[in-house]
């Protein structure tokens, strides 16, 4: 059964007037092997008209967080604690009928793989029109016209004809555009994009990113953009949240985090990326080890078994004490501010040039 727990008021982690506020979110799944702690005490805000980027390796809790916001987890196997407030409405305690009014209307999601997210049995136009009819009470004729308008808006050629095509008749980039049209058909205030460009080639990826930015400017939506690609996020987001093992380990504006990262995990992500114009003979620096098991996460800092800078901290503090993420620009690390800056300048920055 889903556990519904409203936490006490927590400090605003970003200091902003949030349209979406997530406070101390904890999501656990019951499995045959035990309890999976998929999200473990996560807090963040998203402002209206702004984009929050969430980055991290697979299994860091990015997608689980955003499925939880939309209430898309099974109530039989999921335990949810914390607080999610969207435009003043608490979502964790909302019933299914209330969430049906929110999903696709107040908040919508663009899924990673449109071929599996779109039904093969219905035309693209019908799938775009259906939520519009449900939430606005529009007739089939009105909804069909709205679907054509949205297909045109997202750059589908000959929308009057393509509205009657099935998903398999669209290319990968066109299917993703159709998914975006379906997500935006009711002018949602919050748009969640879950790695929407992962399966696309770089040219189509750039087109989709430009499309999202243009549509955000037109509709004024808040966007949560989930990805593992820091190159993409640098072009899309205003603010950035770095997640690891179900927790936030660093937060700040995109400029702050990418230009002056303060957490060893963020250093690892940046060091492992190839760079345009970089020395092709220089080897990339991978993060050692593997992400921790969410069934049995390590004590203390979840990143300490893979961190090459644990020795900079005296004693066993990294292994025994969980670091906290402060308010505003912050990183959850036991290194002092002076140690972080010295390590970044001496050891990390030269790799990023």
From TrEMBL:
Main location: membrane
One protein family per Pfam: oligo_HPY
Cited InterPro entries: AAA+_ATPase, ABC_Ni/Peptide_Import, ABC_transporter-like_ATP-bd, ABC_transporter-like_CS, Oligopep_ABC_C, P-loop_NTPase
CDD domains: ABC_NikE_OppD_transporters
Superkingdom field: Bacteria
Keywords in alphabetical order: ATP-binding, Cell membrane, Membrane, Nucleotide-binding, Transport
Location(s), subcellular: Cell membrane
Alphabetized GO MF terms: ATP binding
Bilayer topology term: Peripheral membrane protein
Domain ABC transporter span(s) in chain numbering: 22-270
Family indicated by similarity: Belongs to the ABC transporter superfamily.
Record protein name field: ABC transporter ATP-binding protein
């Amino acid at each position: 059964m889903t556990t519904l727990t409203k936490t006490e008021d927590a400090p605003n982690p970003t200091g902003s007037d949030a349209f979406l506020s997530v406070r101390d979110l904890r999501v656990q799944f019951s499995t045959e092997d035990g309890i999976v702690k998929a999200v473990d005490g996560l807090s963040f805000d998203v402002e209206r008209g702004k984009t929050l980027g969430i980055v991290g390796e697979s299994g860091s809790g990015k997608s689980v967080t955003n499925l939880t916001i939309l209430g898309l987890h099974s109530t039989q196997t999921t335990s949810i604690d914390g607080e999610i407030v969207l435009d003043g409405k608490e979502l964790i305690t909302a019933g299914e009928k209330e969430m049906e009014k929110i999903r696709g209307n107040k908040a919508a999601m663009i899924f990673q793989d449109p071929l599996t997210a779109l039904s093969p049995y219905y035309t693209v136009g019908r799938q775009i029109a259906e939520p519009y009819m449900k939430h606005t009470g529009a007739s089939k004729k009105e909804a069909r016209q709205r679907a054509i308008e949205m297909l045109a808006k997202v750059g589908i050629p000959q929308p009057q004809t393509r509205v009657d095509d099935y998903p398999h008749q669209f290319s990968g980039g066109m299917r993703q555009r159709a998914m975006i049209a379906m997500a935006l058909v009711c002018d949602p205030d919050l748009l969640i994009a879950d790695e929407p460009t992962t399966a696309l080639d770089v040219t189509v990826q750039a087109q989709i990113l430009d499309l999202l930015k243009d549509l955000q400017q037109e509709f004024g939506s808040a966007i949560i953009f989930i990805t593992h690609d820091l190159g993409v996020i640098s072009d899309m987001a205003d603010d950035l949240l770095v997640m690891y093992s179900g927790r936030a380990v660093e937060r700040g504006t995109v400029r702050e985090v990418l230009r002056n990262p303060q957490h060893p995990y963020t250093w690892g992500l940046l060091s492992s990326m190839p760079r345009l114009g970089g020395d092709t003979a220089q080897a990339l620096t991978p993060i050692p080890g593997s992400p921790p098991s969410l069934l049995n996460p390590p004590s203390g800092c979840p990143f300490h078994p893979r961190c090459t800078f644990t020795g900079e901290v005296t004693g066993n503090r990294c292994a025994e004490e969980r670091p906290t993420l402060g308010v505003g620009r912050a990183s959850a690390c036991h290194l002092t501010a002076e140690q972080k800056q010295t390590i970044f300048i001496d050891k990390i920055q030269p790799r990023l040039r």
